[in-house]
Amino acid sequence: MPDSSTSPNPSPDDDAHAGAQYDDEEARLLPTEELEFEDVAISKNRNRFCTMLNGPRLPRRHVISPLLPRIQNAPVRFLSRFLPKKSHKAILLAAGLLAWTFLFIFFLSSELPTADGAGQSVVNLDCVDAVWHRKNECGLDGINCRPFSNASFAFRCPADCAAVQVLNPHAVGPLDVNYRPLVIGNGIYRGDSFICASALHAGIVSNVRGGCGRLTRVADHTHFASAMRHGITSIPFDAYFPLSFSISEDSSISCPADPRQILLALTMSFTVLISVFSSTSLQFFPIFTLIFAHVAFASDPPTASYRNITVLPDHISMFAKRILPAYFCAVVIYWTTVRRTLSGLEAQLEKTILWLGGFWFGALSNYTFEWIPISRLTAHDLNQQPDAKLALAVILVILICIMAQQIYSFWLEGRLLRYLGLYSLFILGILICLSIPGVSLRIHHYILALLLLPGTGMQTRPSLLYQGILLGLFVNGIARWDFDSILQTTDALRGDGTFDSLLPAVLQPVISTEAKTIVASFSWAEPPQGMQGISVLVNDVERDRAFFDDEDGSGFVWERDVELKVPEYFRFAYVRDGRTLDYTRAGTLFPNGTWSMPESNSAV
């Protein structure tokens, strides 16, 4: 919190005050004509409430007085001794940026295509890639995901796949798995398991460095065990599945490590040097560029094309697409917020620790905020993710405390009314968005950053930290996810999640034994209007789609060998407009021919 010490002749934007000494962040007297967005003359008839909100009679601008000023200013003095002219400093900055570009490209070259010993290209995988597609994309009996066996390919995984989880319920027999890595089995993995997480579980690749391996398709496999290995607990499945795979090392592959760690050290070093040795607010733009590039190519790169041989073309294309509109936003952010915070700031080390440190903290949000149990700010996600509501409540309390502090600081500067007006417009815009039918408001973290950044436009130590974090969130949001819409349809928000649709009411099946075969005949209650058929999963594989206008659309018959000693799990979902809706919970057909199904799915 700033103190009340003042200076009779403040001039915060003038470089002549560089050697002045202050004891703390000073709220300095500021003539009315120096206040941005303030009227020259204040109306004598304004009411007492507005007078109170408008701040003290003599507004004061906050200025950070550096701790140990001689030490903090030493880098600037050292640079000015050898490079006294601005043109010299500009040449040095350009040379530094050129050196960073060369080194950055050099280390990124490790992502160029590579081949195995047989000359076949190594496939680049994303952390969620699998050989069995989700949402019934493999078709009836898995025909679109063949071959089931006698095939293999070499692959390469990026770093940091251990933290990647399923964000919507995924059926694994009787379980609905959510918010954990999708690894089913031990040694032999079910086909819908994440390949890279399975490779981590098998110890073939490293979570820090990534790595390469070879995937071999294994035909129908029964009983997938659960085991805790290399920090990942796999999921058990006690039945059979038509496609599984094993993972092994392939010594014929020359597999460079994922470069994100060395690129982080490189880019962070250059940004620290720029921050420490630069005394102008224009340092914002090179730092913004370097951090944006690091997120787009290294720390949190966007998803590339499915199973390609190099991710670089996709990442270059998306970087070029996003950097130009991001720069437009950066210019606006600079002139409205950042310039006021960094102009005339002499605390080089404090700026680097608070502002630049916060910038990196926000830009690396896929690591730094990973522990917060909130994946998306939607009602659906908050309801289904454990502890999400509690975490959101804690975050809101912290934000309210920060806002109260910032409001008081703006009041001291005499700018509170203007900013209250600005945020009133923001709130009005949000209310209008909430009232639009057919779409839902989605506050992405880049939107959150844009909304909160104006509230950091002052030179205090807390504002340095808050502004840095928000800038990092903006960069991470755009470099990783692009300018995603603030208004999204229900389908766009759902992704592969549930529809919250009606579930079929399944009647008690008729089960009989014929020779060496157990026959189970299923039927269901009268479907509601608009439903066109029923999809049946057996052990999480779609085995039938029965349409009500067909002759056999009133039921489903399943046969199993009496010698089969594992259970089978059945789920049912309505079909409408060519797609399956939500599936029921799993009913179980046991080896002895008995049937069990949760009561909520059964018809009376």
UniProtKB/TrEMBL annotation:
It comes from Westerdykella ornata. InterPro entries: CRISP-LCCL_domain, LCCL, LCCL_sf. The chain crosses the membrane at residues 90-108, 272-298, 319-337, 352-369, 390-408, 420-443. Keywords: Membrane, Transmembrane, Transmembrane helix. It comes from the Eukaryota. PANTHER family: LCCL DOMAIN PROTEIN (AFU_ORTHOLOGUE AFUA_5G02970), LCCL DOMAIN PROTEIN (AFU_ORTHOLOGUE AFUA_5G08630). This is LCCL domain-containing protein. Residues 1-24 are annotated as: Disordered. The lineage of its organism: Eukaryota, Fungi, Dikarya, Ascomycota, Pezizomycotina. Residues 183-235 form the LCCL domain.
